[in-house]
Amino acid sequence: MTGFDNLCMNCMCDTNGKIECPNCGFSSAEPQMRHALPYKTLLQERYIVGRAIKSNGEGITYIGYDTALNVKIELHEFFPQTLCERSDNNVDIRVIGGSEIVFDECLASFLSYSRNIAHMRELSAIVQIYDIFEENHTAYTVSEWDESITLRYFVERSGGSLSWNAARQLFMPVLSMLSSMHAAGICHLGISPDTLIIMKDGKMKLGSFCIDTVRRLDTDLPPDLVPGCAAIEQYIMNYVPNEATDVYGFTASLFYALTGNLPQDALKRRTDTRLLIPTSLLRSIPPHVVTALANALQVSPDRRTPTFERLRAELSAAPTVTATLDDTQIINRTQEDYESKKGVPNYVWAILTCVAALIIFTVVGIIWISNSSPSSGTAAEPENSQVNSDAGEVESQLASEESDTPNSFSAPNLVGENYEELTQSSVSSQSSNYQVLLSSKQFSDTVPEGRIISQSPEPNTKIAKGTAIVVVVSQGTSVRTLPEIKGKTLAEASQAVTSAGLIPTKIDDFSQTVPQGYAIGYKDAHPGSKLNFGSQVVIVISKGPKKGSS
Questions:
Q1: Chain-centre distance of CA 450, in angstroms?
Q2: CB-hemisphere CA count at 13 Å for 182?
Q3: Region label for 159, one of left (φ > 0), alpha (ψ between -120 and 50) or beta (otherwise)
Q4: For residue range 412-430, what is the model confidence (pLDDT) as tens digits?
Q5: Integer Cα distance of 436 and 419 in angstroms
Q6: How many domains does the chain have?
Q7: Among 75, 79, 298, 348, which residue is least crowded by beta carbons within 10 Å?
Q8: Are residues 167 and 264 in the same domain?
């Protein structure tokens, strides 16, 4: 490309002078986003402004072109529309009267935050900022432009959900990056399937960094919060978000990748903290991952997984990680011991080793002989019997040691238990060894409504303390029987119909026999009728005798 006059404002390719871009089909007659910089505005005598891609309470993001490097760029302009507006020349920013102090504070935060992100160049899993400058009475950042799609679109295109193995390859590098970010005191607070992007090489990055003023509800800028990914503390006034806030957003995005759905909005989860995972998907998610999801998506920040390092351990199966750490410490100690013995001649260590081995074999031989000798008056046991007995003792010892392990226990049998009573008792008991999560509800002709049909992990499986036991709960039979309601009040009749798994509605009618305000019966149905679960039925309520009738 020899010049920049024919740049497409949508893809930054050469249009060859055509109105519609041959590459992307974008028309040069397409208007720019309202409030955005005009097409082909030149910043710093270097960056050409293209189409505005998106905007939020902090500013506007454009595709652009770096004429010095001849590459596409992502250009972000600080432009809080509640605090400022474009001046008459459509380029400069003019602060709205009375908003000067807030604007200056937010602008300073924007510059400081952007510089902190730009310093994290060693992190490959974030969109890199490589230039920051002030112009037009505001500030801009320039980031690398990579062809990508959002995680949301990637999951949709992949059949609606990802396997754990596929998700792990995408998420774990980003988790490591977030741990390093927070170690440097940097939060994102907007992690979602829309800010996580999949690159052409199949790797995932985190973008759309914004100042925390737009990641909370109690500020002067319109909030940019994704329902299901925003933690409860982002809705609470005067609460300072921290690493646990990003843990929530990251895990909600992982939950979306594995299930195809985001958790319910945090405000709704205050009264119903359940995470609904389809049974068909639950079987493909390792139990330790389900537990990690449950811990990291706790509504209360105080009960939530506090750090990404803790989340990494839980997603990697914490017992294995702990063992690896212990083994590493043993290796380190062994190396230290070896270093401390370097000054001793090798032949001395060889002699000492042989002597020690001889002593050990001698002691073992004495014990073996003494155990093999028959007691007085008792015949010797057959050799195989002794081996079997010893094996039984070893197994018994191992079982005893395993049961005594403070962090593991046998999963209880919850099948047949009342789900509501179980969850209420587990919430009231702070010392509960496990969590109960609802996977789904299913119709059953054999298991009463509200009772647990199945669970994962299975009963008596060895699990770690804090593990989530995910259950399927009976919804009762799919065909329901209409109860008798004649003579009941509207409230009583509605309760009876609702308890039967049906949806009540009401009409009024005159009755010579049923007092006003009481149920006459059903419209177009009668007690004992069989209806599908969730069917709507009409309760007829008496208006009393019709005037003029005897």
A1: 27
A2: 18
A3: left
A4: 999 999 988 887 665 445 4
A5: 9
A6: 4
A7: 348
A8: yes
Q: What is the 3-state secondary structure (H, E, C) of 423-444?
A: HHHHHHCCCCCCEEEEEEEECC
Contact 459, 467 (CB under 8 A): no
Positive or negative CA dihedral for 146, 152, 156, 159? positive
Tokens describing residue 22: 């041959």
Nearest to 255 by CA among 296, 216, 310: 296
Same domain, 60 and 131: yes
Instruction: Report whether 190 contacts 252 (CB < 8 A).
Output: no
Task: Please report, for the domain that includes residue 312, its CATH number.
Answer: 1.10.510.10
Asked if residue 198 is part of any domain, the answer here is no
| Pair 439, 526 in one domain | no
Question: What is d(CA 198, CA 19) in angstroms, rounded to the nearest whole number?
Answer: 31
165 and 263, same domain (yes or no) = yes
Per DSSP bridges, beta strands 71-78 and 138-144 are antiparallel
pLDDT at 337: 35
Give the DSSP letter string of 334-358.
Answer: HHHHHHHTTTS-HHHHHHHHHHHHH
d(CA 107, CA 99) in angstroms, rounded, equals 12
125 within some domain: yes
Q: pLDDT tens digits for 134-186?
A: 999 999 999 989 889 999 999 999 999 999 999 999 999 999 999 999 999 99
213: Cβ contacts below 8 Å, ≥ 6 apart? 57, 58, 106, 109, 219, 220, 221
Alpha-helical segments (H) within 158-284: 164-183, 243-259, 266-269, 279-282
Q: How many residues does the chain have?
A: 550
Residue 463's domain spans which residues? 408-474
